[in-house]
Amino acid sequence: MTDMPRRRPTLDEVAERAGVSRSAASRVLNNAPHVSRDKREAVQRAIRELRYVPNTTARALATRQRGVAALVISGETPAIFADPFFAKVIVGASAALEEADLHLMLCLAAADRSRQRLAELLRARGVDGVMLMAVRENDPVLHTARETELPVVFGGRPAGHEPPWYVDADNVGGARRATEHLLARGRRRVVMICGPLDTQVSRERHRGYREAMILAGLEPLPPASGDFTEPSGATAMTELLERHPDVDAVFAANDNMAAGALRALRGAGRAVPHDVAVVGFDDLDIAQITEPSLTTVRQPIQALGHETARMLVRLIGGEEPSPLILPTRLVARSST
Amino acid sequence: MTDMPRRRPTLDEVAERAGVSRSAASRVLNNAPHVSRDKREAVQRAIRELRYVPNTTARALATRQRGVAALVISGETPAIFADPFFAKVIVGASAALEEADLHLMLCLAAADRSRQRLAELLRARGVDGVMLMAVRENDPVLHTARETELPVVFGGRPAGHEPPWYVDADNVGGARRATEHLLARGRRRVVMICGPLDTQVSRERHRGYREAMILAGLEPLPPASGDFTEPSGATAMTELLERHPDVDAVFAANDNMAAGALRALRGAGRAVPHDVAVVGFDDLDIAQITEPSLTTVRQPIQALGHETARMLVRLIGGEEPSPLILPTRLVARSST
DNA sequence: CTCTAGAATGGAAGCGCTCCCAGAGATTCC
DNA sequence: GGAATCTCTGGGAGCGCTTCCATTCTAGAG
Description:
The structure is a homodimer.
Chain A lengths: L10 H8 L3 H8 L7 H14 L5 H8 L4 E7 L2 H5 L2 H16 L3 E7 L2 H12 L5 E5 L7 H7 L4 E4 L10 E4 L1 H14 L5 E5 L5 H16 L8 E2 L4 H14 L5 E4 L2 H13 L9 E6 L3 H4 L5 E4 L2 H16 L7 E3 L2 E3 L5
Parallel strand pairs in A: 1-2, 1-3, 3-4, 4-5, 5-11, 6-7, 6-8, 8-9, 9-10
Antiparallel strand pairs in A: 10-12
Helix pairs in contact in A: 1-2, 1-3, 2-3, 6-14, 9-10, 11-12
The structure holds a DNA duplex.
């Protein structure tokens, strides 16, 4: 080793080299006022020459700010997290955090142990704030959320609990429009495949469906429910076909299940959209590669992540933002 | 507010309440020896009563250990990251880190700004180690990796560079077996759809294909290449059909592209597997929901994440683990 | 020319924890 | 019985940075 294993330089060394006090050097670092031009430049030069980088941990200890936000995904992770939905949310959140110069800590809180660690992370002030995505009713993580003094923003409201800060998509409106779209196409036997009933999204999308049906003077039919996966959509569709052989349209609470429905319909020999029209929800990539391509309700998933993070940043900054509901819109393709 | 906004308790307060010194309290906390039974219990009681939780940041500053590992995903994030592949890798890595009581910092290093922040994070010792996933040849992140003194483990080798520590799947072997499987089924005009040529996986899977063809005394055909997405697979397949109208089998470098190939074949009126057999790679969920379901090479994606993280943990712990190549295996379904 | 407000400056006290070390007691062993 | 060896114990020095505050310097006001 030609160069000795020299420790990374500290602010003291920078100060010494620049011939100023540590306080002055610190001021330069945070570009605070009350530093003369000369000294400022001297410090900057020293920083450059020493390749100095401030130690985040020390700074965090002194300022009580960690520079990190947690994004929590609870629920059965391998299954749920594999949904590309979360990938997009994370991309959006990551971008927003970056603007505020925060880092992203990803917490998969499925097992008890994981939840435990999350709770400790918050109590130990390991992060500056928390985003809770897709929390379900009675999710244990809600207790942790209630207990912490840290800012918490929900991405999607949990069922049965209106948190002070959340960002959500207009699920009711989207579902209503999806159903209305089917009705406008002349369909009358419209059924629905909804998601797990303990999620708010499921309930809301179901509500939108009911509203549209009732508004049209039709009787809403009892939904079949899946778990947001493709196979569960196929199963639900099969069940619905048995229950209502004369069905002429189906609205699925997400694209995966809609894709499953398409498969089941094909298996049952029903032509889409001729015999049965299908609408999904989300507008994930899959909606464009099914055959026929899927009419669906687009929700701005990346924006959901982005806005959730932005709201958290504001909260951390001491502001008091209001909850936000993002618009959804129908994208018509070949399945209707 | 009935309860005053009391600060969170510190170790000093715990010590005081337990009637011991801070050193003793610290020893109890880290259950180190040299603490009498009485004092130990007194401290534990105080901790309980005060609901004390040690401040991670202070501890990190004192021990020079952050308790955090970074998982870096470079490349065009919205596109790449949406691949369920990464979700699984993350689930695996997260589980392994949890065992070592480390937290996971997720860094999407697509834009320059993001890479810059990553570099600073490392220089500022914001994490204890780094996992670099799916790095491409000439990826700027390689430079950052080379510069840091922190432990770095690669998940999948970058092309043209053999890092000291990595975990990878047996791509060559898997591709060879896939091709051999097709040949064993009596296919002779076997073509390949490969991925971007600047990735090591693509090259290796292509190599496996070539090896199998040559071993069988056949001339490997020049591949068409896509970008690992479904549509690109369809395009590539169409191109191959034009180039080799008599093709009777195709091996795609991943399942998404294989699904695209299936779609293109259906569009071209070729029956699968009767006219053309198809094999994919990965064994993602999609392989089971295509029609026909996809014969594919399963790679242990979650294990890849898990082992990458475990290797990093060892490295952080001062061990010197060896690179690891995980086995892949053929899963036969209906497309062959 | 004196007075005073404001800028510049560095000393020093934290932030909350770990860990080295020296001293006190308890044990062991010849 | 005394030396040698352990276990306990708490004092105190960091870890590297921010920030309060008292002091000095500068310059404009009167």
